Amino acid sequence: MFLTSKNITFKNIAYLFSCAIFFIFTSCEDDLTKQKGTNSKNFPSQIINNAYIIQRDSGLITLKAYAPIIEKYELIDSPYVVAKKGIKIDFFDKKNPKPGTITAKYARIFDYKKFYEAKGDVRITTNEGRRFATQSVYWDQRKQRIYTRDTVYQTMPDGSVLINAHGMTAKDDFSEYRFFKNSGDLDVSQTKLAQ
């Protein structure tokens, strides 16, 4: 009988010990899972390699975009799309068959805000042939405004260059624009002012 109670005691101790270990490990796993869940949301939910995107409005092409890689971050509080290795966008206007272009080394798009930013050697060419070069540009689609506070170099179709030291603001179709702290050379012989 003495031998049996020892066996029962060892079995009880082994059982209690295994239960304690089980509860310790499962409680630790829950905490680790919760911690990993909050930290692991900042990763792309979609990745597109060699992206070629066409946007249409009423059957007409309004935009074509090309990028080596596009990453979409949807699982965070402020979702966005990013093109880290550069982007080229051709934008089309109903009035002009020739597209305008925007190129940049980096771009980020906030769809829910209708806000776009491009950085790094940004080049914009309008449908009329005017060219703008700057380091960053921002487009608020809701307000239909494009702006930057960086220096903007504007080259006109006739070759004249304006330097705008403190940025610019413009309508998103570049029908109107305003520069800050300008300098440069203009050929006014071809303008209405000369006549």
Question: How are the SSEs placed, and which strands pair?
Answer:
Layout: H1 2-39, E1 46-57, E2 60-73, E3 80-83, E4 87-93, E5 96-104, E6 106-110, E7 115-125, E8 131-140, E9 145-148, E10 152-155, E11 161-164, E12 168-171, E13 177-179, E14 182-185
Antiparallel strand pairs: 1-2, 2-3, 2-4, 3-6, 4-5, 5-7, 6-7, 7-8, 8-9, 8-10, 9-12, 10-11, 11-14, 12-13
Task: Give a short account of the largest sheet.
Answer: 6 strands, antiparallel, barrel
Quote the average pLDDT: 80
Low-confidence stretches: none
Taking the alpha carbons of the first and last residues, their distance comes to: 123 Å
Broad structural category = alpha+beta
Beta-strand content? over 45%
Corresponding CATH architecture of the largest domain: Sandwich
Named CATH topology of the largest domain = lipopolysaccharide transport protein A fold
Structural account:
The protein has one helix at residues 2-39; strands at residues 46-57, 60-73, 80-83, 87-93, 96-104, 106-110, 115-125, 131-140, 145-148, 152-155, 161-164, 168-171, 177-179, 182-185. Strand 4 and strand 5 form a beta hairpin. The chain folds into two domains: 1-40; 46-194, lipopolysaccharide transport protein A fold. The protein is built from one helix and 14 strands; from the N terminus they run H-E-E-E-E-E-E-E-E-E-E-E-E-E-E.
In short:
The protein is α+β, with helices and mostly antiparallel strands and 195 residues long.
Record keyword descriptors for this entry:
alpha+beta; lipopolysaccharide transport protein A fold; 14 strands; 19% helix; elongated
